[in-house]
Amino acid sequence: MAGTTTKLVGWIAGGLLAIAFIVMASTSQAFAHAALIKTDPADGAVLAQAPARFSLTFSEPVSPLVLTLVKPDGTPVPLTSFRLSDQTVEIDNSRALKSGTHVLSWRVISADGHPVGGSLLFSIGAPSEPPVVSEAVDWPQRSAIWIGKVFLYIGLFLGVGGAFALAWLAGDDRAGQRFVTAAILCGLVAAPLSLGFQGLDALGAPLSHLAQPVIWRTGLGTSFGWTVLIALIALGLGLLSLGGPRAAARPLALAGLAGLGIALVASGHASAAEPQWLTRPLVFVHDAGIAFWAGALVPLGLALKRQTVGAVAFLRRFSWTILPVVAVLAAAGVVLAIIQVQTPPALIGTAYGRLLLVKLALLVFLFTLAAVNRWKLTASAEAGSTEVQRRLTRSIGVELLIVLAIFGVAAGWRFTPPPRALAIAAAQPVSIHIHALQAMADLSITPGHAGPVAASMIIMTGDFGPLDAREVTLVLSKPDSGIEPLKRAATKPGDGSWRVDKLVIPVPGRWTVRLDILVSDFEMVKIEAPVDIRP
Amino acid sequence: MNKYLLAAGTLLVLGTNAASAHITLEAQEAAVGSTYKAVLRVPHGCDGKATTAVRVQIPEGVIAVKPMPKPGWTLQTKKGKYENSYQLYGQAVTDGVKEVDWSGGSLPDEFYDEFVFRATLTADLPVGQKLYFPVVQECGDAAERWIEIPAAGQDEDALENPAPGIKLTPKK
Fold this sequence. Notes:
Order of helices and strands of chain A: HEEEEEEEEEHHHHHHHHHHHHEEEEEEEE
Strand content of chain A: 15-25%
Strand order of the largest sheet of chain A: 2-9-8-4-5
Strand content of chain B: over 45%
Helix content of chain B: 10-25%
Strand order of the largest sheet of chain B: 6-7-4-10-11
Largest sheet of chain A: 5 strands, mixed
Structural class of chain A: alpha+beta
Number of strands of chain A: 17
Helix content of chain A: 40-55%
Order of helices and strands of chain B: HEEEEEEEEEEEE
Distance between the termini of chain A: 68 Å
Largest sheet of chain B: 5 strands, antiparallel
Oligomer: heterodimer
Shape of chain B: globular
Number of helices of chain A: 13
């Protein structure tokens, strides 16, 4: 019997290790929130006739979820025929479009498992009153995602973490077992529901569509699908360690804790950050540490409250091990926070930073309480003082409430791109395509915000043929700003492109970029287009 | 009265000032089917540098080009095929001078000079429209290109480096 259990645990541990390996090793590219960097047609473009295809280029590879074309009269047409080539989504358009302003609404998902969406306007013939496209936040859906996440955290940290504490720290004490079981069951319900909510968010569908199979398939297809699957395994292991044979309780609980770490590594901002060889293990250590700490709170508090036989021994084991665990968990958290926030102003300037500040404030309370418990109360409680044990119980209760509040804050990060990703998006080049009869150009300005930039251009003939220009001059003007046009001769670095380095764009806003292309000795082609420079 | 004259004079001076910054042709009008004496007026160098070469492109429909040599300058022509065939004194003409280059000289920025050629404007040229002679002015390694031709509906004054041109009048 014991042999079979050990074998079973061995299989599970091996499986988890394999999953951990896949999750840690699968993504090697720099993933953040995907940012749209170029579109064809350009936003606001006025075209003579309907284009045969649209293209959206992102800062990283994405997978389209919903692509819709909203006609001038407001009727949406789903666009289903598209191809992915690297970071570009190419969408076929077989329809003849009537004149007026159209909206191309897109929703894609990137590797951090978080969907992003937006829309671009273009007009056929002449612009008309743009059709109304709702981009309002779906609050019921958001709340559902948030609540699902909080309950998943309860199931994982208090449930699986609690099972670990019961198996490894509590000795023969069974206080808190019912709470831990309840937390795990809560997680087992929340995990699949979260997957559905993720699917809803991915497709931008309202809560009422939750029953549709496509919602669940989509949710499962995102990286959050991995989180949910592995979380379910971890929760199952935790439950087994509680109800299974005593001999298997410890390895099962340990495997559960490992599964919890892997589940949370599989998706989310922190584990999507570069360098992933660092962030993924840090997320693992951070979350396993939280589970160790938070999971022990309820069983320990209840044991002390009921003054069970093993309570003092439980407290002793916990207080011995908690210091290094918290040290590692805090160190991992600090490093992750630095990677995500990057600059101190982002703490206040971004929603992500503000959530981090709230979490830090809660942590100050939590650490103060924990320190008082650890250094002032624990010794007396271990000595058997029932009065102190009661105080300790109350204090642990408060700790638990703070932990729940922290879960709430952490779940809120689901909706805020980290400053790291915002910075990546801001540094993305601005790219435009200028098309005229005699010549056309692909121009990108890097980074796409005001300040020192470099411009790179590919010059082609009007029908996509090669154009060996003799000279190219870049002219940037902003007539409304009172700034004289910036005129720079481009150089040829030798790779077929033209470059202008050390260009300074003094102010953000809409500039007019003009390229003076000397085609031959006596022939100059001038093409121009507006370009939006970010602040 | 004097005030008006003064104002008009100022306007004239300002107006011509702007125009005289470009390379222009002295005679701004010519009849099709006639011989045209083109005098290219070079009022300055390239951003203060002395002019070392003046090259002019001969547009289609302008044949029998004969440039005037200039002391101190090397005169060269580039010949090529015309797009169409033209009649000149009963003879079919299908090729001829397509570019005239005066080079190797030095015209300091503070001096003025003229470059001259004679040519026949064929009778098929569109009356009422403008005919442009794109000019490249070289100053050592720098160059000014007077080669911009306004697109349909575009104001010629809006161009930074307009090509010199003449208005074609009906055949006399």
